[in-house]
Amino acid sequence: MGRKLLLEHINVPGINTLEVYRKTGGYRAVEKAIKTMSTDEVVEEVKKSGLRGRGGAGFPTGMKWSFLAKPEGVARYLVCNADESEPGTFKDRYLMTNIPHALIEGMIVSSYALGANTSYIYVRGEMMPQIRILEKAIAEAKAAGFLGKNILGSGYDLELYVQPGGGAYICGEETALLESLEGKRGNPRIKPPFPAIAGLYGCPTVVNNVESIAAVVPIINDGGEEYAKIGIGRSTGTKLISASGNINKPGVYEIELGVSVEDFIYSEEYCGGIANGKRLKAVVAGGSSVPILPANLILNLVNGDKRLMSYESLSEGGFTTGTMLGSGGFVVLDEDQCIVRNTWNFSRFYHHESCGQCSPCREGTGWMEKVLHRLENGHGKMSDMDLLVDVSKKIEGNTICPLGDAAAWPVASAIRHFRDEFEWHVRNPTLAVKENFGLAHYADPLPELVS
Amino acid sequence: MLKVEETQSVEFSTELVNKFAEIVSRYPEGKEKSALLPILHEVQAVNGWLSSVAMDKVAAYLNIAPIEVYEVASFYSMYFLRPQGKFVLEVCRTGPCCLVGAEKIIDYIGEKLGVKEGEVTADGLFSYRGVECLAACGFAPVLQIGPEYTFYENLTTNSVDQLISDLKDKASKS
Fold first, then answer.
1. Which residues belong to any copy of the NADH-ubiquinone oxidoreductase 51kDa subunit iron-sulphur binding domain (chain A) (predicted)?
2. Are residues B92 and B63 in the same domain?
3. Contact A128 B133 (CB under 8 A)
4. Where would I find the H helices in A115-266?
């Protein structure tokens, strides 16, 4: 069993209440940080931990904090990104539902470190039940003296508020989130200036994912160096993985980074293997935006070594044979699933969620969706695959925010690894509508595929 | 379709206005516009949708131009700009849910209710639509029903039958 830092007490009855949360050691990090550490010391511990942003980008959290501008007399803000919307990702919802105080405690420690006196948790609007849970937890923390004026007699003041979104994937992009929090459409801002200089209301702001902020609690309790001992290489600590699709045990798992992908999929501790006795066809390892990989490439690296659940190992081979850890949204496809249909579904998602600001994304996502729709419905042409790659390349890198890249990568990677399945759809238009291509050679040993 | 006069007057109750004031107090002075999204949720929870009359009143309350409300309400997918059924079944239609049968569930709901996506049943009780990822992929297929946004997970045709019958009971008792 791997170590659990965030979900250790998930099964303790009443862990969603302050009373039980404190009995399991909760709010020790607040006491330790506010009573015994300077703000710089807290930032230093987070830097030492090697914690990397858990929302998808993987940028070192301590470094992000150290970029925060601190002009005299200007308010600073910490905003928690709880707009969890990346298809395949549901870890933040799980954490907020079950252990809301882990996030509240992390918010208090992190706000203290950054010198923020007002902080917001921006939760996607559909998570109304989680918003109520967080509001209740905040009220409890406030009544216990962990929030409000003069926290624990330290002279430090903090107000914490929950802000509902309106249902827009784009608001997971940090500058779109800030626009939304200001009561506007969620159009990403041009950077620079980065939020660390000019964020919420034009003030210096840090935006962090729910899981990143919750991870600050064990980092302060045990020290950054202890946290960094867990994991592998630059992938330190534990990571929440949202496992879904055709597996026996879908759910949220906390892993020590460095577990092998094979163990994660097949061991009883995690996914418990492919459902209904089927065989593995493909995996989207880090949320819908990251490249899809066929079974042989997700389980093993090209050199034959096992692929591991870490930032580095999952991206080994670049986009030619690798993918990304992303948000940890691990979607498993069995042999009955149609790659063309899945790709069309994801591209419809990006078309729907494009904010419309940049032409390549606004027009390109719709174009890709249309072409994929006709392929899936038996009206495709052999030239469509090159067309899709061409359109995806013209979106990638040409937009203000990463949604363009996120829309391009799943399409480009599906064609890269499953081109024969797309071609089969063109050659067999009537079959394409009702039957699936099957497994082909995607589960074969690697050398035959990688040429 | 349910007929509702677009120009019907909208009154905000004292309770609702007090709620608005509490929301506005969360932001620094001069940044009251931040209250827009939460206030629109409150208004929709009471009225079922956002009419232009209601949006104009929100604009007046926040002292911003009506267009600033319209552009936000039309951008975010949760706000309804036309009347809906009393219960709006919003079923996730994105990848992971579809791997385990969401499309069949959406089709089944349509057949069961006898309306097309976005239409309201003759009794005014139901409408449904496919929505994008609801961050519940491990419990797929899922649907949600506002204004509380209660989740119904691991859907089957049987559980959909049960849900619709429960909602009908609930409506007849209220």
1. 340-385
2. no
3. no
4. 128-143, 174-181, 210-222, 224-229, 261-266
